[in-house]
Amino acid sequence: TRQCLGRRIPSTAELASELTEWEQERNNQQKGVDWQFTTEEARIKLKRLYPQIKA
Q1: pLDDT tens digit sequence for 4-35
Q2: How far is CA 5 from CA 2, 11, 13, 23, 27, in A?
Q3: How confident is the model at residue 2 (pLDDT cuts 50, 70, 90)?
Q4: How many domains are contained in the chain?
Q5: CA distance 19 to 13
Q6: Is 21 helix (H, G, I), strand (E, B) or coil?
Q7: Sign of the CA dihedral 19, 23, 26, 28?
Q8: Which domain holds residue 3?
Q9: What is the pTM of this model?
């Protein structure tokens, strides 16, 4: 992922600090997710939630 640092972080305290900084920066950017899709796309992507009813 983009969050991968490509290096080791020596301590959990430093990891927590870097994660907090990353989280604050990400929240300040107000990134969102577009979850809109058509019913047909939903039937494909959420197949287990749309069971096939046999008549």
Answers
A1: 678 888 999 999 999 999 899 988 988 778 77
A2: 8, 14, 16, 14, 19
A3: low
A4: 1
A5: 10
A6: helix
A7: negative
A8: 1-55
A9: 0.49
